[in-house]
Amino acid sequence: MTLTTATPRLVQALSAEHRGRLMAIAREVDFPQETRLFNEGRRADRFWIIRSGTVALDLSVPGRRAAVVERLGFGELVGWSWLFRPYIWQLGATAESPVRAHEFDATAVRAMCVDDPEFGREVGQWVGKVLAHRLHSTRVRLLDLYAPYGSGSTV
């Protein structure tokens, strides 16, 4: 499994004005290798954009070890569950290498989306595209791991 390049990055998803507003509330954080960023089923109250390093997204599989469904790298969004009620992580995430990232408070960003509908529309479209990509990646990965003939995907 390689790093994904199909999901829209922040620079592609938001106008310069909206990107600037979002980055104005960013906080720089570092995660050592093997740090658990979040666990499936827990409260989603923040998200990150990777500056360097690799984050593995995983899904709990009953009776088995968690399945890594995607790896994320530079410029990619880590976390989408913060935008949609009930704000519960649908996947888990671990730093596979030391990670430097911009961290965002989900409550603050959701408030910005309400206060500026155009900003909210751009953020919603960006996160929605990421979500659609993650759903597809998860499906393909689980079929590759557990279906008798794999996913049949060459993507």
TrEMBL record:
Q: Where is the Cyclic nucleotide-binding domain?
A: 10-124
Please name the Pfam families in this protein's record.
Answer: cNMP_binding
Name the domain of life this protein comes from: Bacteria
Q: Which InterPro entries match?
A: cNMP-bd_dom, cNMP-bd_dom_sf, RmlC-like_jellyroll
Q: Give the matching SUPFAM superfamilies.
A: cAMP-binding domain-like
Q: What species is this protein from?
A: Streptomyces indicus
Q: What is this protein called?
A: Cyclic nucleotide-binding domain-containing protein
